[in-house]
Design brief:
Elements (H helix, E strand, L loop, with lengths): L1 H33 L2 E7 L6 H20 L8 E7 L4 H13 L5 E4 L3 H14 L3 E3 L14 E3 L4 H14 L4 E7 L2 H13 L6 E8 L7 H8 L6 E4 L5 H11 L6 E3 L6 H7 L7 E4 L15 H15 L5 H20 L4 H9 L4 E2 L4 E2 L15 E6 L2 E4 L5
Parallel strand pairs: 1-2, 1-3, 3-4, 4-5, 6-7, 6-8, 8-9
Antiparallel strand pairs: 10-13, 11-12, 13-14
Helix pairs in contact: 2-11, 3-4, 5-6, 8-9, 11-12
């Protein structure tokens, strides 16, 4: 009895300690459950590529805000950890390391340019964190890397879409004038690799530098080459607008094809009336109001357009659309995996099938981390300062 009496206070203390431990454990579990799911991003919101990165950044912020208003993911808020590399690939890599080591993100959506993306890939691959790039270069997904995906069409796909259109119009000989920047060189090389599949030959091949302000000498050479039926300009930034203006000034009078890299209203503004008649491949987002009612992308494009323009007061662009698809693909993968574990998110991403985005309809596989074909491009023609879908043959 005496022993029992002495033990009772000790047992009560032990019980209290266990109770306190249980409460602490429960509190800790609740706290952990409420910790935010961190998604990283590095974009070029300022600098020479700001017209690409700024709508990407705005879109990512907007989507995460809307997602959190609906309760976040897995009962947890989502935190977007966003850095601006200013168009500097070295800064992009530094920020990628910070996202992995300091911010502890579970996924990454970003990489405005191919250069920045390629600089960041080793960081995320080594860390085993899924990375959805917003850049265009085919080398991002070829060869396939375990943790790397992308949302924009590749330059190879753009070449194929353009050559499909040329072949349908009976064009067999073309001139090419390409930018010497990374995008221009890459697309030129991809076009040369696939052009023979369409029985089309390049009979004049010219280039221009990133700072060139007059391309009339190169265009005159193309104009004076016998047999040319159309001209293709793989280019990016202001160069294609200058080419377009010079093309009109010289009165070349042939179909002019531009790349998907100029698929924004800013190109039309820069090129002015000379843009009339230019043809290019582009995502559905530019012609959402012109899509058929039965087109499954139409409601997705309309919703994003309305949301973005209301929040920013700016027109949508293909580049913001890449960001929208990137963040959607990642958050849907988290939902599908029912986990914020990076490996499980990666597996869910790779299992994506028939996701209807504003850029196209994505289906990833272990051998395809782009998931888009030429059918996700729309061939557009510029008429009177606007986009025309499926313009008639000229």
């Amino acid at each position: 009895m005496e022993t029992s009496a002495r033990l009772r206070p000790m047992l009560r203390a032990a019980a209290f300690a266990l109770s306190a431990f249980g409460a602490a454990a429960t509190f800790g579990t609740t706290a952990r459950a409420a910790d935010p799911i961190k998604i990283g991003s590095v974009v070029s919101a300022t600098g020479p590529s700001a017209f690409l990165g700024d709508p990407e950044a705005r879109t990512l912020k907007l989507y995460v805000e809307e997602l959190n208003k609906k309760g976040g993911l897995l009962g947890r808020p989502v935190e977007l950890v966003l850095y601006d590399d200013g168009g500097d690939a070295n800064k992009a890599r530094t920020f990628a390391t910070r996202l992995v080591e300091d911010d502890k993100v579970v996924a990454m959506v970003g990489g405005t340019s191919t250069g920045a993306t390629m600089a960041m890939i080793p960081v995320f691959e080594e860390a085993g964190i899924p990375f959805v790039s917003l850049a265009g270069g085919i080398e991002i997904v070829e060869p396939v890397r375990a943790f790397v995906f992308k949302t924009p069409h590749t330059d190879k796909t753009a070449c194929q879409k353009i050559f499909e259109d040329m072949k349908a119009r009976g064009i067999t000989k073309i001139g090419m004038i390409s930018g010497t920047d990374g995008f221009g060189k890459s697309m030129r090389n991809q076009c040369l690799k696939v052009i023979s599949d369409y029985a089309i030959t390049v009979v004049a091949d010219e280039t221009y530098g990133a700072t060139d302000s007059d391309m009339t000498p190169q265009l005159n050479k193309i104009k004076n080459t016998a047999g040319i039926q159309a001209v293709l300009n793989p280019g990016f930034g202001q160069g294609p607008a200058i080419v377009t203006r010079n093309f009109a000034q010289l009165g070349i009078g042939l179909p002019l094809y531009q790349s998907h890299g100029v698929a924004s209203k800013s190109f039309i503004d820069l090129a002015g009336p000379a843009a009339d008649g230019v043809r290019l491949p582009a995502p559905a987002i530019l012609v959402g109001d012109k899509l058929a009612a039965s087109d499954k992308q139409k409601p997705v494009v309309a919703e994003y357009k309305a949301s973005y323009e209301k929040a920013t007061g700016q027109p949508v662009s293909t580049f913001g659309g890449y960001g929208f698809d990137g963040i959607q693909l990642v958050t849907k993968a988290i939902e599908k995996a029912k986990s914020a574990d990076p490996k499980k998110i990666r597996d869910a991403l790779e299992g994506t099938k028939d996701y209807v985005g504003v850029t196209g309809v994505y289906t990833f596989t272990p051998t395809d981390h782009l998931g888009l074909g030429t059918d996700s491009f729309r061939m557009l023609e510029i008429r009177k300062g606007d986009w025309v879908l499926e313009a008639p043959t000229r």
